Amino acid sequence: MLTVLFVVAIGAAWWFTHRASSTVGDTITVYYTKADGTTLAPWQVTLGPARDRASVAFYAATQTVAGPPSNIEAVRFPPGTRVRAVDVTDAIADVDLSREVAGSSPEGSFAEAAEFKALVWTLTQPALGVTSVKVRVDGVRVATLPGGHLELDGPLTRSSF
Length: 161
Prior knowledge:
- By secondary structure, the protein is α+β, with helices and mostly antiparallel strands.
- Helix content is 30%, strand content 24%.
- The protein has 3 helices and 7 strands; from the N terminus they run H-E-E-H-E-E-E-H-E-E.
- The protein has a 4-stranded mixed β-sheet, covered by helices on one side. It has a 3-stranded antiparallel β-sheet with strand order 2-1-3.
- Helix 2 (53-66) packs antiparallel against helix 3.
C-alpha cells in the first residue's frame, strides 16, 4: 500500500510541475536594453493562438530582435537581423539568427552585449522554463561575432551579463 501511495505522489508531482511549466498566459514579457546599454526594460506582447513552448519562444525571440516601438530609445539588433529558428530542448533554447546579426554596429561591443542580454533575459523568463540560450548564425555555431567581444560558443545565461 505504501508503494502505491508513493507512486501516486510521484505521478501527481510530475503532473503539477509539468502542467504549471507549460502554461503560458495571453501575454509574454519581452525585454529590450535601454540606450545606456545595461538597463533592461520589459514590455508585454500579446500572444497568438499557439501557446506551446517552442512557438512562444520563437515569437518572443522575434519580438526581441525586432525591438520595442521606434519611438523608444533602445539598443537594437543590426538592421535586417531576423530569427530563423528557435529549438527548445529541456531548459535550453537554441536560437538561429540570420547573418545580419554579425553586421557592424557603430556601438561595437557595447551594442553586442546589450542585444544579447535582452534576448537571453526574454527567453529565460519563468513562463518558458528556459535557463540558457545557445546561438547560431545562419545555422552555424560561432565562437564570437566578427568583433569578437561576446563569446557565443557556450550557452548564455542571465549571469553572463
